[in-house]
Amino acid sequence: MAQMNMVQALNSAMDVMLGRDPSVVLMGEDIGYFGGVFRVTEGLQRKYGEHRVLDTPIAEGGIVATAIGMAVNGLRPVAEIQFADYIYPGFDQICSELARLRYRSAGDFYAPVTIRTPCGGGIRGGQTHSQSPEAIFTHVSGLKVVMPSNPRDAKGLLITAIECDDPVIFLEPKRLYNGPFDGDPHKPAVPWSTHPKGEVDEGHYTVPFGRADVVRAGAAVTVVTYGTMVYVAAAAAAALGIDAEIIDLRSLVPLDVDTICRSVRKTGRCVIAHEATRLSGFGAEILSVIQEECFWDLEAPIQRVTGWDTPYPHAFEWEYFPGQKRVALALETVMEPT
Amino acid sequence: MAQMNMVQALNSAMDVMLGRDPSVVLMGEDIGYFGGVFRVTEGLQRKYGEHRVLDTPIAEGGIVATAIGMAVNGLRPVAEIQFADYIYPGFDQICSELARLRYRSAGDFYAPVTIRTPCGGGIRGGQTHSQSPEAIFTHVSGLKVVMPSNPRDAKGLLITAIECDDPVIFLEPKRLYNGPFDGDPHKPAVPWSTHPKGEVDEGHYTVPFGRADVVRAGAAVTVVTYGTMVYVAAAAAAALGIDAEIIDLRSLVPLDVDTICRSVRKTGRCVIAHEATRLSGFGAEILSVIQEECFWDLEAPIQRVTGWDTPYPHAFEWEYFPGQKRVALALETVMEPT
Amino acid sequence: MNKRSRLHLPRAPARPGEAPDFGYVALSPAGAVARPDVNARARDVEDLAVNLVRVLDDAGAALGPWHPHLDAAELQVGLRHMLLTRLYDERMQRTQRAGKISFYIRSLGEEAVSVASCMALRPGDMLFPSYRNQGLHIARGMPLVDLMCQLLSNTRDMCKGRQLPVMYHSRAANIFSISGNLATQFPQAVGWAMAAAIKGEDHLAASWLGEGSSAEADFHHALLFASVYQAPAILNVVNNQWAISTFQGYAGGEQRSFAARGPGYGVPGVRVDGNDFLAVYAVTRWAAERARTGAGPTLIEHVTYRAAAHSTSDDPTRYRAKDDHLHWPLGDPIERLKRHLIRSGDWSEARHEALIAELEALVSASWKEAVSYGTMSEGPKLDPDLMFEDVFEKMPAHLIKQRDAMRRERG
Amino acid sequence: MNKRSRLHLPRAPARPGEAPDFGYVALSPAGAVARPDVNARARDVEDLAVNLVRVLDDAGAALGPWHPHLDAAELQVGLRHMLLTRLYDERMQRTQRAGKISFYIRSLGEEAVSVASCMALRPGDMLFPSYRNQGLHIARGMPLVDLMCQLLSNTRDMCKGRQLPVMYHSRAANIFSISGNLATQFPQAVGWAMAAAIKGEDHLAASWLGEGSSAEADFHHALLFASVYQAPAILNVVNNQWAISTFQGYAGGEQRSFAARGPGYGVPGVRVDGNDFLAVYAVTRWAAERARTGAGPTLIEHVTYRAAAHSTSDDPTRYRAKDDHLHWPLGDPIERLKRHLIRSGDWSEARHEALIAELEALVSASWKEAVSYGTMSEGPKLDPDLMFEDVFEKMPAHLIKQRDAMRRERG
Ligand SMILES: Cc1ncc(C[n+]2csc(CCOP(=O)(O)OP(=O)(O)O)c2C)c(N)n1
Ligand SMILES: Cc1ncc(C[n+]2csc(CCOP(=O)(O)OP(=O)(O)O)c2C)c(N)n1
Ligand SMILES: [Mg+2]
Ligand SMILES: [Mg+2]
Asked: A279-292 in b/e burial notation, b at 16+ Cβ within 10 A?
């Protein structure tokens, strides 16, 4: 066991996999000699060679396309898109090709590509360094979509992603790289070393997809969330003194419907929280599933807490970000006696 | 008034606008000399000249990008993407640029671009000629998203789109081009001339965005739908003899929440139907809004009827397509006494 | 406003009612273009992107430094593959017209592009085709029955009913799955080639796309990544002059050849007579040797003509001069190879007729067998459960649920 | 596996700890490159993509056919704009370091690229910049206060707080909004130029992107559409050798110049000494005349060096040789123009010092004014309601609802 922040945990996952499996290769903009703009691949090119950790042209479409070709030829590429906001030039290759290759070739060809990309706001990155595009990928049949909220899960999920023969969109909430963040930008930053999930096994281990983590058991209300909002939601519930059950989804596709519904059946109330914009966000899918499965258990309308339906504005970061206040209002609403 | 099918109605909308407004230009693959693979732009290049109706290279990203530049320079481009399945190479320009230009420039620049594209299945087009990608665009703040279900609306909505200073994704359910389709491929095709909404005004008129059409009033259950599914749902309800209120959304963004909720408050039951895949489909957003607004009025869980979460398979078109049977099962479920 | 417009608009040489005009096609005489060393630097071979490599002259003589000097037996195999491709095409076109398959795309007039390229490569080389390369599948020896079962989406369809007709693939024959989205295969092929280089293997990847498709971003990505990593890839642009109704000028062919894109990236570009079996073979061989000796990628433009409609959904009389392919200055690839073989005494009209009869019988027998595995309307059917498989490696819970719902729905 | 790998990997000329090495930069002597007629065909000017157009020699003499023979007064204006750009940059860098703005990007060493280009164009020409073109804004006369207010996201920010610092725009000055997504502006500029041509107007569009960004699909789309429609556009690749930590070889610069991409599309490509004010001016003028006379688009590669860090978030000592810009063979654009002016008797060290003092005072006064409209921590603030405006022309119901919720949330 070692203390790691999320950057180090992700680095360790790739280090382990590069060491175990000669077919694993990393590729992306600035990831090789430099080690990535967030330093997630630091030291790996030096350790495994320039042919295993490739710097690439600035062409996300070309990165995804060549990763597919490499995967078809027996490699396991882990491609970094420098910011999730820049994944769209690769969208056609992801959605029309990567996601559907196994299907259209009836399993004769498939491309085990992992696409890692930092997402989310809270770092004053403005409209093109803050987006949370997960919902879009969850709508594309054939993709697995994952978002860890802590170093321990991050490493285990990334190893699962690399070992998985399906393509995985692996979203890294960059606000959590250095420590958990409860949504209050005025508080001093907290490092992962103060958090139990900053304790990370140095070797190989996996965290499976499709299994949500109940990060806090509770009886009064279920909060379904993932990524940075795990901490924001927990802090909001704690501040209100509400006995909330907090569920960290970890993987969105596949979705752990059982854990969610078991909880909602117990609490009868539910708040869903994500950073992404509301309209057709992944919260809508979660809400729909709960409504379909637990309709008769619900004692109040499920509430969605989300970013607003605007681009992410640089100057209004904290008015935009779904902070504790927004979660608290939703919790209060959902807890109103009926 | 004239009899028009949807192709003719769309053609008429562009004809009217090319005639009224010299800043309107059309562009797209095969749309000029040839008049488009679905003949929607037939005759317009001959009538208005090669400089108003442009053939383009096969580069959807370039089409959208140049349309943006043209719009910034005072034109009103109407760009055709030959099939909605081929819109993804233009996704970055749509999502990062077209949708956000007005916002990021605080209104100093904006691009009144309409992107028309045929969508949906039922024509044995297989996985790359059948998709319904509307949900993805509804998640992108700054885009209006429209899908007509009949010639009369198609023309009025397209004129609204062209006159609108916001960018519009205009999805045309190609299965409806020649006639309404109730989901039964074995029945003989029905032409628009047999349908009242095949009567189309030859001149200029608009159908506003954000106003759903109650195509059938009813008291027992609300069916919220759009595009081809309007006819499938109506036929399913009729076959079951259920007094369904059928709502044709026409525009998804903006969404006519009032009409939907007024109806659900009245009926207490709701089925949502679309061709697109289920997971994070637009049905999830509609369901969420209804759950949030009408929770206490609901007498049964809202049901979603959708395409399956797979690519669109060529050979299993009618097992994939959400036909009358799938709608009927949902209607029966939602009508079960509680 | 129109009168003042200064926007340039490329013009098709002949529209319906006009006389065919191929004066715009820059030709070189057979044998006239020099053949550089396979290790020549890209910058030293730029003339290859301007001139037109040709071996066969109009009389069927093989001339000049690109003459590949193949055995007669090999040429006869090439002729056979091309003929089989054509006869298969003709029959499948009729079959579609008869309503027995939903869709078809012919390669009429472009048979040499696929067959000669394929024969110049090794079986371990990976092919990333477009939808107009059935010659590749035939030259790699895929049974016609397999191809026909795909067209029928029947119980032996290698795509399990999930793809439109003509979107074949074969893992065994190293032929990649065809996408409906144009051009996507081009940079994928480069990625495959990069992996071969990373693994230190000797294989190369070859891909094909239409000149219209070269406008897509993927074309640029393919050339760029191939150039940066000097990937062992052969990138083929099949310039058959048309993209559905759109003349090649709209893909940028008016200002420069498509081969000329290569040198801009430091990739040699070769313009070759795509209807000349020997020239296509020789140029592909040259590119393959470059790739295998570490000299990097090559872009090849095959100058040819789409003699038929775009697909069975298309009617070219709406947008181009009638029968214009009869005026195409590079002739017909099968006729040209046949003439060459007869001239050198290795073929005869009689053998040709006999071969046609043999291949027609093969096509008929294959079709008979194929329909026994199911047609659109009759015989065994694919299990609709297959719709839910292969979305993921293992079927996840939500798809199991949907599959079960589908079963209930079907009663 | 690695040992057998044959993947080629471009190599940076010098990494930390190594001696700077610019031997790879192909140079031409000042005055050596011929200036073709503005109506020359693309195919006849291909050498411009290989050679390097230079006017100023090391001693400050202006030589050869590209010498634009500008008035001293005009050159002095150019020097002033470049100096102001540099002083503004320096001050804003310090301001960011002091925590007063969140982010900044300098253009150190690349001032001529923007200033000389801009001065060679007309006010009605539309500019589509990247984030490293502040010289354009300054040369177009935008008040520094306006730029600073954008950096501060304050109450006078032309972006209303919605963009990262440096993403300026000006409708009045015909400078387009800057995107965070690289290269998107390139084909947009071509679209703008196409519209000018459609309308029969005389204006052209010019755009800039980094050599690293030229790898994006948008670069290809821009060249292709510009070529097909012969759009009046000037497409500038600013080859400052680096894209964050990535050397230009990874953008394809190892095999050919970036200018050489142009000829592949039938677009003239000109490689110009980007640190030579006179050369940049002359080449831009040539391209502008082509555009205005209907001869179509031009691709210009500005060979220059990113002397500073990528941005305030970057530390180049981690990936390149320390102080290597001091060894850059094309020198510093401001020093070079100054030397030329002094040599021709139109400038002096004293005037230079005085100008620096004047401009520093201007920067200081501007900053003082800018902060009076609000800073990140003090003074007037933008109304958060603005967050919901301009998503659409009119605020739709769902955003009104969300705005009201935001108001409630803020109490
Ligand atoms: C991304 C994308 N855009 C558009 C289409 C529609 N489409 C199918 S074939 C075709 C023409 C292709 O022409 P070309 O590349 O020259 O190939 P050819 O048919 O001549 O062999 C078009 C536009 C598509 N399949 N994919
Ligand atoms: C689509 C996209 N991908 C990646 C990035 C991240 N990024 C920002 S600047 C940059 C380097 C650009 O280098 P270059 O184009 O050479 O311009 P320079 O900074 O040298 O002026 C990168 C990779 C981005 N902004 N947009
Ligand atoms: Mg073609
Ligand atoms: Mg650069």
From this structure: bbbbbbbbbbbbbe
Say yes or no for a CB contact (<8 Å) between D215 and A126.
Answer: no
Q: Are A169 and A302 in contact (CB under 8 A)?
A: no
- Domain residue spans of chain D: 42-380, 383-411
Nearest CA residue ID for atom 8, ligand 1: C182
Counting DSSP H helices and E strands in chain C, the numbers are: 11, 7
From A232, A327, A321, select the one nearest A270 (Cα to Cα).
Answer: A327
Rounded CA gap, C310 and C316, in Å? Answer: 7
Closest CA to A175 of A88, A86, A84: A84
How does pLDDT run across D212-270, given as a tens digit for each residue?
999 999 999 999 999 999 999 999 999 999 999 999 999 999 989 999 999 999 999 99
| Nearest bound ligand to the CA of residue D185 | 2
For the residues D64-90, what does the mean pLDDT come to?
98
Q: Does residue A264 carry a pLDDT above 70?
A: yes
Domains in chain A with CATH codes: 2-200 (3.40.50.970), 213-334 (3.40.50.920)
Helix ranges restricted to H, A166-320: 229-240, 257-267, 282-294, 317-320
Given pLDDT bands bounded at 50, 70 and 90, which one contains residue A31?
Answer: very high
pLDDT at B338: 73
Q: For residue B134, what are its two tokens?
A: 């509307």
Q: Given strand A270-277, what is the order of strands in its sheet?
A: A213-216, A244-248, A221-225, A270-277, A303-307
User: pLDDT value at position D280?
Assistant: 98
Q: Which CATH class is domain C42-380?
A: alpha beta
Question: What ipTM does this complex have?
Answer: 0.98
Residues B59-113 have pLDDT tens digits of 999 999 999 999 999 999 999 999 999 999 999 999 999 999 999 999 999 999 9
Cα separation of B13 and B157, whole Å? 9
Q: Which two tokens stand for residue B178?
A: 């020649």
Q: Which residue's entry shows tokens 């037996």? A: C73
D204 burial class (0-12, 13-18, 19+ CB within 10 angstroms)? buried
For chain B, which ranges sit under pLDDT 50? none
Residue D4 is predicted with a pLDDT of: 66
> Is the backbone peptide bond immediately before C187 cis, with ω within 30 degrees of 0?
no
A173 vs A129, A198, A237, A254, C208, CA distance in Å? 11, 15, 21, 19, 40
Q: What is the pLDDT of residues D281-306, one digit of tens each?
A: 999 999 999 999 999 999 999 999 99
Residues of chain C found within 8 Å of residue A106, distances taken between Cβ atoms? 157-160, 162, 390
- Residue C70: which residues within 8 A CB-CB, separation 6 or more? C78, C278, C281
For C:295-314, CB contacts with A below 8 A are none
DSSP reduced 3-state for B115? strand
Residues of B that are catalytic: 129
Q: Does A134 touch chain B (CB under 8 A)?
A: no
Is some CB atom of chain A closer than 8 A to the CB atom of C184?
Answer: yes
Q: How far apart are CA D30 and CA A107, in angstroms?
A: 61
Q: Are A168 and A144 in contact (CB under 8 A)?
A: yes
pLDDT over 60 at C2, yes or no: no
Asked if the model's pLDDT at residue D1 lies above 80, the reply is no
In sequence order, what are the residues at sequence separation of 6 or more whose Cβ sits closer than 8 angstroms to the Cβ of residue D315?
Answer: D309
Return the pLDDT at D2: 42
CA-to-CA separations, C275 to B84, C332, D46, D279, in angstroms, rounded:
35, 6, 30, 47
Burial class of residue B203, CB neighbours in 10 A (0-12, 13-18, 19+) = exposed
Ligand 1 pocket, C240 CB below 6 A?
A: yes
Neighbours of chain C (3+ CB pairs under 8 A): A, B, D
